[in-house]
Amino acid sequence: MFWTAKDIAQEMDALGYYALWTAEHHFQHEGYECFPNLIQLSLWLATQTKRLKLGCAFNVLPMWHPIRLAEDYAMADIVTDGRVIMGVGRGYHSREVESFGAPVIDQAANRELFEEQVDLMLKCFNEESFSHRGKAYDVPPPVEYRGYQLREITCVPRPKYLPVEVWMPIASSKS
Fold it and tell me: Hey, what domains does the chain have and what are their CATH numbers?
């Protein structure tokens, strides 16, 4: 499937398409083609193409730590000169999301976690330094660091292009 993705990306690039969008999935033994890490896939496809943008549709945010995903995206934004398009979603496959220890069957808990994660991820992108106190995340944590208490952290690197365009799927008016 990776070689097929490469072939498709190269053909789309040659034909002048704007973007190729890929989806994050896990544990699909039925034959569904799975890309478990869209940013890594996009980094590789960027080395195989010249202009094609590479969209993440979507990184399933409840299965990620939002700071780690923000850092990974920032690196991809820098090394591809803005060719990776960020996208996040809440997830809908219980086999995937619940296996990573995040809620999806409890939709209210899934939404609450997702909204806090988006808030934290956007702080990483848009603020020079920040703190966050939420239900799922306490950043920086209340621990001593080299003899003092951290009050804020800084995400390094930060994306090359700000503001970051973040795409999200919408399935209903409640979304």
Answer: 2-167 (3.20.20.30)
CB 59 within 8 A of CB 70: no
Q: What is the pLDDT of residues 5-55, one digit of tens each?
A: 999 999 999 999 999 999 887 777 766 667 888 999 999 999 999 999 999
Say if residue 70 is exposed, middle or buried (CB neighbours under 10 Å; 0-12, 13-18, 19+).
buried
Q: Cα(62)–Cα(69) distance, rounded to whole angstroms?
A: 11
Tokens 């660091």 locate to 145
Distance CA 118, CA 65 (A): 10
159 phi-psi bin (left φ>0, alpha ψ -120 to 50, beta other):
beta
Residues ≥6 apart with Cβ < 8 Å to 16: none
pTM of the model: 0.90
Query: Phi and psi dihedrals of 59, rounded to 5?
Result: -70, 125
Mean pLDDT of the chain: 91
3-state secondary structure 152-174: CECCCCCCCCCCCCEECCCCCCC
Task: State the DSSP H helix or E strand holding residue 67, giving kind and residue range, or none if neither.
Answer: helix 66-79
Name residue 87's beta-bridge partners.
167
- For residue 96, give the DSSP letter: H
DSSP β-bridge partners for residue 19: 53
